[in-house]
Amino acid sequence: MTQMRSWLFAPGDSERKMEKATASRADIVIYDLEDAVSEAEKPKARTLVSAFLKSNAQHRSRLWVRINPIQGPHALADLAAVMPAAPAGIMFPKPRGRADAELLDHYLTAFEAAAGSEIGSTKVILLATEMPASMLAIGSYVGVPRVVAMSWGAEDLATELGASDNRSADGGYDFTYELARSLCLVGAAAAGVAPIETIHGDFKDDAGLRKRAVQVRRAGYRGMLAIHPAQIDVINEAFSPSAEELAAAQEIIDLFAANPGVGTIGHKGAMLDRPHLARAKALLASVGR
């Protein structure tokens, strides 16, 4: 499967921005039919996105579409427009819980069948914290078909909560939004899917982007949303294991292999146990080793 380190948004009503995003080094490009497109422009955007998917078939494995919320008036029209062009995946905003994700699965199955696509081939990432009900349902997605990743957002949630801002005086997120980040990480782990960090809004702030990407990767996140191609190299680097990390992981694996049946091993002044071994194997597996 395509790597999932960097997920770059491109407004679905802008040919120039979709072309620029598609030509970038983003692992996944998301043509956006939701927040980036005004109500009046949504029909035009659907037509443009469908055309872009068809004309960029060589990149299709990394081309996704963010549709509008399933509880609104646009989602089915979005799917009817883009599914014949076979996007690799759908970004699903504002799910209220498992029932919404399962309903999307049913819709996708019907559209795949109508288009002659392989059933189940269209994957899904959930934007799983944008509504209060979403926050309360974060652990409900275990076993839902198609879901491969889960991300979170702070802006829509702030609006739903009636907040005037979601940042504290030092510029960091307030507690409720840090909770959303933590719940997304836990919910994704429970569902066995990749947790993806939300955007860093200032696309000229490379230092801040790098700091956050490194921090959330250490916590368990596997990738990050982006709003500008200039952010992609920083994100890809931050979510790629370094040669030193890979060497250290291999050393741990070799150490346990040389001592079969041992539960704990002293190594470089620390005690290593089976969770350390599991993390080392997972790190190597993330790069296909």
Tell me the layout of helices and strands:
Layout: E1 6-11, H1 15-22, E2 28-32, H2 42-55, E3 63-66, H3 75-82, E4 89-93, H4 98-115, E5 123-127, H5 132-136, E6 147-151, H6 155-161, H7 175-191, E7 194-197, H8 206-219, E8 223-226, H9 232-238, H10 243-257, E9 265-267, E10 270-272, H11 274-285
Parallel strand pairs: 1-2, 1-8, 2-3, 3-4, 4-5, 5-6, 6-7, 7-8
Antiparallel strand pairs: 9-10
Helix pairs in contact: 2-3, 10-11
Domain HpcH/HpaI aldolase/citrate lyase: 5-229
Pfam families: HpcH_HpaI
Organism: Steroidobacter flavus
Describe this structure in words.
With 289 residues, the chain is of the alpha/beta class. The strands form 2 sheets. Strands 1-2-3-4-5-6-7-8 form an 8-stranded parallel beta barrel, surrounded by 5 helices. A two-stranded antiparallel sheet has the order 9-10. Strand 7, helix 8 and strand 8 form a beta-alpha-beta unit. The two termini are 15 Å apart.
